[in-house]
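ok so I'm stuck.
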Amino acid sequence: MAVGPSELPVFNVIEGVRLGVACAGIKKPNRKDVVVIECPEDASIAGVFTKNAFCAAPVIVAKEHIAQTSPRYLLINTGNANAGTGEQGYQAAQQCCQALAQATGTQAEEILPFSTGVIGEPLPVDKIKAVLDQAVANLAVDNWVGAAEGILTTDTRPKGAVAQVEINGQTVSISGISKGSGMIKPNMATMLGFIATDATIEKELLQEMLAAGSNRSFNRITVDSDTSTNDACMLIATGKSAAISRDDAAAVTAFQQALDDVMRVLAHEIVKDGEGATKFVEISVEQAASADDALEIAFTVAHSPLVKTALFASDANWGRILAAVGRANIAELDVSKINIWLGDVQIVTNGGRNPEYTEEAGAAVMAQENIRILITLSAGDESETVWTTDLSHDYVTINADYRS
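replied:
not stuck anymore, here's the structure
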C-alpha cells in the first residue's frame, strides 16, 4: 500500500558514476539485494549519518573510511542491517570492503559499506562476497533503476528524483535514489539515500550543502517516530561539469535549490510509501516564536497515534490535533491566539472551535489522500513544515510479520 502513483523519473546519466546490482539471497532468493556504486577518482563525496547511539557497524566503518580517503565505491546490502552486532559486525563490514577492494583493484579504505534490514543478526558475509564480481560486471551508467530496486526492504516501490540546472552556461545534472518505509524519523538524513551530480564542488562545501538539504527534507519527515541505526545519505560530485565555489553566490544558490528539490522529492516518496500508509500529510506551523517551537509542535502532532488513526479513519476528530498542540514541549504557548485549518477548512479560531466549522466540511478534507494541517501561533515570524502518514492496520501487520 502506498499513496499516489508509482513512477520513477528518467534518470540523468552522471558522468563517472556507474551502478551495479546482484542477487545474494540475503533474506529472500532471487531478489536484488547487493548494489555497488562506482565513483571517479577525483570525485568529492559527502555524507550524513544517523545519530542513533547504536549506529550500525557499516555506519562506523563508512565514517572512518570517508575521513581517511576519497572513496571509489559504495557497497550496499539489504536484508540485514549489521547493527547491534558488536565487534563481529565491525569485522564483517570490513571484510566486505576488503572483498570489493580486491574485486576492483582498490584499497579497502576506498570502500564505503551500507546495510539495511533486520537488526541484531550476523551479516552473511560469504553470500555478499560471492556476488561481488557479478555486481561489478553489472556496473553501468544507466543502471539507476536497478540500483533503486536493489536497496529496498519493506518498501513497496523504488524511489528516485532528478534535476538539471544551468550554472555559468553549463548544464549540471543531479540523480538520486532512496529507500525507506518504516523506522522513519531521521535524525540527520534518510534511511538510505544516494545522490550524484556532475558538478565540480570541493568536499567541505559539498558537505555543507548536503547537511542543509537534509535538514529541509529528510529531517522533516516521520512515519513512526523511530530513528534507524543505519541511516545514511551520500552526495557524490564527479567534477565533470560546472565548477561551484563559495565565491559564486548565484551558482551556490542555484545548485542548492536543485539539490533541495531532489532531496524533498525523495523524502516525500519515503512518506508516501510509509508502511501501511493511505494518507500523505503535511503539517505546517507558522507564526512561531522560534523554528524549534514550530518543529516541536509539528512533530508532536505528526507523532500522535490518536491524530494518525483519525487520519486513517477519515474521522474529523479535530480535538486530537488541538490536544497534541497543547502538550507540545513549548515554554510559552498562548492558546487563545492559536488557529488551525484542515485543508481550507478552519477548525479552530483563537483557541476554540470555529463558529462556522461543520463536521461535513472537516470530514470531506479528512477523506482526501493528501491532507494539509496548518497551525498558526501568532507568536512570531518563524515557520516549519513536516510530512507524515496516517497509522493503519497494515502498519501493525507489516511490523508484526517483519522477520517471518
